Amino acid sequence: MKNLYIFLFLAFISLPIAIAQNEAAKPHYDKAVTLHRQGKTEEAIKELDEAVHSDKENIDALFERGVCKFDLGDFRGSEVDMLKCLKINDHHAKSYFYIGLCYLKAEYPTVATEYFSNAIKCDPSDYIYFYYRGVAICELKSDYKFAQADFEKAVELNPNHTDSYVYLGNIAFKFKDYQKALSNDNKVLDLDPNYALAYFNLGMAYDALKDYTNACRSFNSALKLGYATATEFADKACKKASEN
Q1: Any residues with CB less than 8 A from the CB of 180 and at least 6 apart, and which?
Q2: Mean pLDDT of 230-235
Q3: pLDDT recorded at residue 5
Q4: Which residue stretches of 38-108 are H helix?
Q5: Mean pLDDT throughout 213-223?
Q6: 95 Cβ neighbours under 8 A, 6+ residues apart
Q7: Is the pLDDT of residue 172 over 80?
């Protein structure tokens, strides 16, 4: 019974301390969020340092600081803050996600894939986790079918995500399913008519189908949008189109 009283006493006195710590951290956190949105990321980090100093268990401040460090290219520092978040809450999907991004940026796609998978386990409702896991798998140049399933899940959750359709088109092209590649590239252009890469990919699919007229037109559309890589492809396709 005596131990119970001690426990209740400690709980009673620790609650106001925790509230005070949180209240001391909040103004710094709120200011940091505003600064970050304004692009003043280094200033935001200073405010977040103060917030974390006031409340070392403030997961919001730790996470925001990790995002700021990621934005500045400090991937190791970002990972450290995200790992601290996971010590507080091991189901914090966004922390797993950002660690995955850090490893993807550092060109460790295998490790990145593991962290994206953890993010998905914690929150399977966010399309971006599936998208980036698909990207990491493509970087490994291995299981493209698995990556395809991730991109398909991403567009199921967000039908307007153009980059997922781009990857789906690329995978279809890799497996020589050129009609499916065209379908995905056209979906991109339905959503964003100024997506230069989609026009280039259309040109590649049309060229593979020996439809040089449409290939020529697509490559030239990519060029008009500033996609210089299409120059040589446009010359060849347009020449073949004129010969037919």
Answers
A1: 169, 172
A2: 96
A3: 41
A4: 41-54, 59-71, 75-88, 93-105
A5: 97
A6: 63, 66, 82, 83, 85, 86, 89
A7: yes
**Are residues 202 and 171 in contact, defined by beta-carbon separation less than 8 angstroms?**
no
**Position 60, amino acid:** D
Q: Quick check: 208 and 176 in contact, CB under 8 A?
A: yes
For residues 61 and 28, the answer to whether their CB atoms sit within 8 Å is yes
pLDDT at residue 25 in the model: 84
Cα separation, 155 vs 200, in Å, equals 21
Over the stretch 173-215, which tens digit does the pLDDT of each residue have? 999 999 999 999 999 999 999 999 999 999 999 999 999 999 9
Contact of 214 with 199, CB cutoff 8 Å? no
pTM flag (> 0.70): yes
E strand or H helix at 90? none
Q: Which amino acid is at 39?
A: G
| pLDDT tens readout for residues 53-79 | 999 999 999 999 999 999 999 999 999
Spatial separation of the C-alpha atoms in residues 30 and 182, rounded to whole Å = 47
Which among 86, 77, 73 has a CA at the least distance from the CA of 49? 77
Contact criterion met (CB below 8 Å) for 199 and 218: yes
Handedness of CA 202, 109, 107, 93 (dihedral sign): positive
- 3 burial level (CB within 10 Å; 0-12, 13-18, 19+): exposed
Residue type, 121: K
Q: Rounded to an integer, what distance in angstroms lies between the CA atom of residue 140 and that of residue 108? A: 9
With tokens 């989609």, the residue in question is: 198
For 181-211, give the secondary structure using H, E and C: HHHHHHHHHHHCCCCHHHHHHHHHHHHHCCC
